[in-house]
Amino acid sequence: MTDxxxxxxxPDGAGTVTPGPAPAGSTERKELTVPQGMRHARIHGLGGYRxxxxxxxxxxxxxxxxxxxxxxxxxxxxxxxxxxxxxxVIDMSEPAARQAMAQAGVSxxxxxxVIMATVSHPYQTPAAAPMLAHxxxxxxxxxxxxxxxxxxxxxxxxxANDMVRxxxxxxxxxxxxxxxxxxxxxxxxxxxxIFGDGAGAAVVGVSDYPGIGPTLWGSLGDKADVIxxxxxxxxxxxxxEDPGREDGIPxxxxxxxxxxxxxxxxxxxxxxAVEAVRAAGLTPDDLDAFVPxxxxxxxxxAMIKALGLPEHVPVAxxxxxxxxxxxxxxxxxxxxxxxxxxxxxxxxxxxxxxxxGLVYAAQVVLMP
Length: 368
Description:
Shape: globular
Order of helices and strands: EEEEHHEHEHEHEEEEHEHEHHHEE
Largest sheet: 5 strands, mixed
Distance between the termini: 27 Å
Number of strands: 15
Number of helices: 10
Mean pLDDT: 89
Number of domains: 2
Structural class: alpha+beta
Oligomer: single chain
CATH superfamily of the largest domain: Thiolase/Chalcone synthase
CATH topology of the largest domain: Peroxisomal Thiolase, Chain A, domain 1
CATH class of the largest domain: Alpha Beta
Low-confidence stretches: 1-18
């Protein structure tokens, strides 16, 4: 990176390519300097952060017609974590990022790009990623947020992989972070018990061997109403223009059609997961871990069955204690599996995210 406007130098391994026809009226053709050949990339380090406050089902059912037994049967969730009121997605991302960087042995100066996957940073602009980069002391990185809901982390891993392989940068810091408690209607029986807060981080960088397989991803925009933000930010304008109003103007919150999400996740995502394994040149028997988005324990069980996953492959079940943390769920679950010895360092893992959009993404990775 550079702060001046001087002519950039070619990156290592760069060369020139023969361009197309010269512009009309010109006898010269310009030659572009570009990287030559593709490098390998892998995840070098993972980190996670769970807020201190543990929220039980007993607390949730004070506001909805439900019970601890019903919630556990329907979702597998026993507890979830809520951030403090003054704790932001940037606050939660910082310790997760520092842990991932320490595990990777990478200094702030080596990070060239910061990608933050989140749908709960409460500002349209500025993005959270540049502010996090500043806190971490990362000098002048490309930094931006992406909005792909529960598939955001897998989207960001794919982007980071492509950047490293193409020679755009040597190291990318990826965050999946959510403060969904800010956007949960505690009176909504269909969603109040589902969501939690947390942050997960990964450092993706240059590798001597392949560490991230091809990504299978896509979207179904015609199903946008299945999981959605109920109110637009502009719906708050009347209240902002007249703070004294008391006509029940709502705060934007996330809602979902539970049965539709379940059917889509089970019947449509399992084939995507199978294809992601096949695209990496492997079979389910080659896996050392399966880390699906922590949406619902019943969805996870159904996907295991549809995949024909061998019994020896450990499966992430972080949702029981963390709830659905959207973009944070996969890195949080994988880092827990590694920390607790449930999955092996250097092992092969299938990860798949799916959520609002509807959007999805899956890839096989080597765990750090």
